[in-house]
Write the structure tokens for this entry.
Amino acid sequence: DSGVTQTPKHLITATGQRVTLRCSPRSGDLSVYWYQQSLDQGLQFLIQYYNGEERAKGNILERFSAQQFPDLHSELNLSSLELGDSALYFCASSVGDGGYEQYFGPGTRLTVT
Amino acid sequence: ELKVEQNPLFLSMQEGKNYTIYCNYSTTSDRLYWYRQDPGKSLESLFVLLSNGAVKQEGRLMASLDTKARLSTLHITAAVHDLSATYFCAVATGGGADGLTFGKGTHLIIQP
């Protein structure tokens, strides 16, 4: 158990809908990262927050957005969902924002039908 | 654009043998990560390599980093069945931020 928690574990929704994935980092960690894992694209970095501020952006679609709250938990919002958004979404956390070990949560499996 | 290539992508080996997984990356970076993923599970951090010449060992696994060659290796010594998993290397995107670019993963099967 990495200490990173993610909810929900599974999510099934229809095309065009909007969902919110939640992540709580390990106690003391200030950075939160979101990654997407799919068979087609592999593991892709989406976005990083550090202490409430956006720190880096990867291959995040405009339909997706994220934020980190004052208690350091983070939410990833996915809207106008398409079949191709079906994937495993991981949150990771680290104590700092450069060169630190990233601990991955158990993931949220999103299925878009 | 940073590219990370792993090889081999699939490896079947016998218990007791040694083997090496290679990870090449395309642009300068001094932060290299190795992860393990079991089927249906999350990623488990194995090693973080932060400087040229860094070498880290944990049990039967040893990782090294050559930043000049842009190459990291993960060496498996006297493999055992429990090491069967998919192994990913990942490189930090740089600029101080730490979003990782992952290789496609090496699916390792160790047979008795």
